[in-house]
Backbone:
């Protein structure tokens, strides 16, 4: 079985960085277009995908992106459940393994970071347990 996701889209809000004992975590959402054909007509829809990243990648996302930034992400889908008000709720999120910072908000060209060419980060490690998220390429 394979669980590999590749998306390109824009951040819908400012990334939220949280410091945890094991690793820093950033939470954000990406809007991505989906094209389809309905009754012979080309249609377009937008999907909003909740994402999570760890360690150095999380810190770079928090430092180099903002609402509207265009990014390319590879990762895997992670499902979870939680209890709230005596009801079980289920959710899914994309766990980021690599990210490419493509452009800043309101910029249709490729972005160039003046002193930091933080274009591609690589995330390594397991989702559960103590992550070893210390591999990064700048």
Residues:
């Amino acid at each position: 079985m394979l669980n590999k996701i590749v998306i390109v889209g824009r951040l819908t809000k400012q990334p939220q960085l949280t410091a945890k004992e094991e690793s820093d975590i950033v939470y954000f959402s990406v809007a991505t277009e989906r094209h389809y054909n309905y009754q012979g007509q080309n249609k377009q829809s937008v999907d909003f995908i909740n994402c999570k990243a760890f360690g150095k990648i999380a810190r770079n996302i928090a430092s180099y992106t903002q609402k509207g930034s265009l990014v390319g992400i590879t990762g895997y889908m992670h499902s979870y459940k939680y209890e709230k008000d005596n009801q079980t709720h289920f959710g899914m999120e994309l766990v980021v393994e690599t990210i490419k910072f493509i452009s800043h908000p309101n910029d249709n060209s490729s972005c160039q970071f003046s002193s930091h060419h933080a274009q591609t980060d690589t995330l390594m490690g397991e989702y559960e347990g103590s992550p070893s998220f210390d591999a990064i390429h700048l």
Notes: The CA atoms of residues 95 and 127 lie 8 Å apart. The chain has one helix and seven strands. The radius of gyration is 16 Å. The mean pLDDT is 82.
